[in-house]
């Protein structure tokens, strides 16, 4: 008779975002985002294209709330969604940007961007625990609209590749903000705070969808 040694169950503690880690992530993201405007003097060439791309998502609240919501919803869902969603969104967004730069028509861009805030905000508000595949497909769908908008607004003199790198990094930072906020879930008052955040995101998306914002 073969004796099969018992193994210790896998622990996913390394994938857990604690409140302390979340605050550190928020602080790092805030420092990078605060320093970016001081560096952006031109939209020309490699450097200017990168900075233009870096700042483009940050200065549009319709982009900001949706991208924060992606990270926040990923944190609510936990592993593996906490890293799958923030990876899926920028990758698909880059493809959407390529469509925009190429001038390939995609309908309802502004409505799709605004709707992403509404839907993702509601998912956070009600702490919806969707399967990771469903969550990934939904996030990828909305990413196309955000990416297309970035692509169509490429500055004339900017380097497209540098511009794309810039907005992908900015998107990752905004996802990081959402993940950091998701760390509040470990606190006694964290879950209600997260739900309030989801409600705010949904309201901002609604404002853009209805033309108020």
Describe the 3D structure.
This protein is an all-alpha fold. It has one domain. Helices cover 71% and strands 0% of the residues. It contains 8 helices and no strands. It starts with 18 loop residues before the first helix and ends with a helix. The chain crosses the membrane at residues 50-75, 82-102, 108-127, 132-149, 161-181, 193-212. This is Hydrogenase/urease accessory protein. Residues 1-40 form the signal peptide.
Q: Rg, please?
A: 18 Å
Instruction: Return residue spans where pLDDT drops below 50 for at least 5 consecutive residues.
Output: 1-15, 28-43
What percent of residues are in strands?
Answer: under 5%
In whole angstroms, the N-to-C terminal distance is: 72 Å
| Average pLDDT score | 85
Structural class given helices, strands, pairing? Answer: mainly alpha
Q: Give a short account of the largest sheet.
A: none
How many beta strands in the DSSP annotation?
A: 0
Separate helix tally? 8
Q: What is the domain tally?
A: 1
- What's the shape? globular
Strand and helix order:
HHHHHHHH
Helicity level: over 70%
InterPro entries: HupE_UreJ (IPR007038)
Protein name: Hydrogenase/urease accessory protein
Organism: Hoeflea phototrophica (strain DSM 17068 / NCIMB 14078 / DFL-43)
Pfam family, one: HupE_UreJ
């Amino acid at each position: 008779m073969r004796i099969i040694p018992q193994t210790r169950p896998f622990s996913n503690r390394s994938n857990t975002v604690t409140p302390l880690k979340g605050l550190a992530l928020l602080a790092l993201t805030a420092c990078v985002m605060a320093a970016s405007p001081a560096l952006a003097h031109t939209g020309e060439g490699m450097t200017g294209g990168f900075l233009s791309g870096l700042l483009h998502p940050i200065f549009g609240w319709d982009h900001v709330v949706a991208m924060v919501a992606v990270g926040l919803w990923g944190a609510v869902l936990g592993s593996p969604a906490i890293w799958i969603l923030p990876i899926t969104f920028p990758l698909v967004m880059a493809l959407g940007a390529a469509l925009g730069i190429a001038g390939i028509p995609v309908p309802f861009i502004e409505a799709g961007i605004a709707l992403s805030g509404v839907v993702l905000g509601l998912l956070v508000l009600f702490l919806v625990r969707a399967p990771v595949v469903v969550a990934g497909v939904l996030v990828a769908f909305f990413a196309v609209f955000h990416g297309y908008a970035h692509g169509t607004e490429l500055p004339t003199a900017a380097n497209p590749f540098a511009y794309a790198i810039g907005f992908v990094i900015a998107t990752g930072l905004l996802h990081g903000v959402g993940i950091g906020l998701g760390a509040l879930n470990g606190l006694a008052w964290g879950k209600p705070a997260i739900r309030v955040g989801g409600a705010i995101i949904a309201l901002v998306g609604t404002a853009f969808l209805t033309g108020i914002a």
